[in-house]
Amino acid sequence: VPSGQVAAFLGPNGAGKSTTMKMLTGFLAPTEGSARIGGFDVSTQRLDAVKLIGYLPENGPLYHEMTPKSLLEYLGHARGLSGSDLAGRMDYVAQKCALKTVWNKTIGKLSRGYKQRVGMAQALLHDPKVLILDEPTSGLDPNQVHEVRDLIHSLSKTKTILLSTHILREVQVCCDRVVLISAGRIVFDGSVQEMEGQGHDMEGRFRELTKARLT
What is the pTM of this model? Predict the structure, then answer.
């Protein structure tokens, strides 16, 4: 996936999406094959690879007793940021993810939508070159979904983005490319327009391509 592209990573439940993303981000070690992030092998050069990645897992864990401000400060130090560099990045993500109104509130008391924004903020904090987003609009209301779409569009100008979602409308609005897997294999890799086909029915194409693999 080149810089400046938003690639949708799709597949039915159990296809291997989450496992693949966990291997790319260093949470799981692959048993075979290879994967590279920015030229670094995720198996043999894991620390170099993960420095380039911002990862938003689905229902990602947060420290509920902390505030967005204290959590991001803590994670910033863990990422090697300090002083004015950390302060600048915290101001940036607070603005980008619209967190100022809850900046000093306990995360455990925030709505699911705001918790999702905090998760997005931690993924962006160290200004990664690669973003891996797993269901980034999960639990958001329509206004918040629109804000996340705008954010993804603005970030795609300078970053590589891999976006996993079950909402095909998100793919049509946000993405340039579709990689569809089924039973651990790629069954489609092409543009959103190619995935839609002449009938513009992405759901139908999804069922057609994944059922063929399952049977």
Answer: 0.89
